[in-house]
Design brief:
178 residues; alpha/beta; Rossmann fold; three-stranded antiparallel β-sheet; 3 helices; 21% helix; binds inosinic acid; binds magnesium ion
């Protein structure tokens, strides 16, 4: 348990384990997309820390873009599947190899909605890389191509993920202890 924050929490995935796994993902993605165009599409805001660390582990040329959606309101911690685009991509993705970089897949509703929108823009390929996967919570089947860690059904925060918009800066994944 750490001090200085209002709620007690403990480390679920350490900074060391995160960075090691991201190194492996970077190597894998660099191999899989070698010699090809690659656009990393980060879902704001939760995916930003993961994106910036993942980029530094890629040995191949790539570009980045950002998509912001409202997954659900501040009060509700349950995905509704109703997603609003708050910030769209800067550039068209037609014909490009798009790799979505997401913090966590929970029910799967958000990514299902996002991939439907993106597919209509006819990318050359569309894959998903998520840092965390809460597999047992899945309500819609969505194929995830790269998974950092599969985690239990607990609300987590840190490393980009927020607890009521705070604590995104923690360099590790935390879980509340009460
Ligand atoms: P889904 O539509 O249920 O898959 O929700 C995915 C989104 O819900 C993620 O992009 C996160 O923003 C948010 N989310 C789901 N579980 C957690 C969690 O444990 N901590 C923080 N955010 C979460
Ligand atoms: Mg998110």
């Amino acid at each position: 348990m750490e001090a200085n924050y209002n709620i007690p929490y403990e480390t679920l995935i350490s900074e060391h384990d995160l960075q090691n796994r991201i190194k492996e993902l970077g190597r894998q993605i660099s191999t899989d997309y070698a010699g090809q165009d690659l656009l990393l599409l980060c879902i704001l805001k939760g995916g930003v820390l993961f994106l910036t660390d993942l980029m530094r582990q890629l040995s191949i040329p790539h570009e980045i873009d950002f998509l912001a959606v409202s997954s659900y309101g501040k009060e509700v911690r349950e995905s509704t599947g109703v997603v609003r685009i708050l910030k769209d991509l800067d550039e068209p993705i037609a014909g490009r190899n798009v790799l979505i970089v997401e913090d966590i897949v929970d029910t799967g509703h958000t990514l299902t909605y996002i991939t439907n929108i993106l597919r209509a823009r006819q990318p050359g390929s569309l894959k998903i890389c998520t840092l965390l996967d809460k597999k047992e919570r899945r309500q819609v089947n969505i194929p995830v191509d790269y998974i950092g860690f599969t985690i239990p059904d607990k609300f987590v925060f840190g490393y980009g993920l927020d607890l009521d918009e705070k604590l995104r800066n923690l360099p590790f994944i935390a879980v509340a202890t009460q």
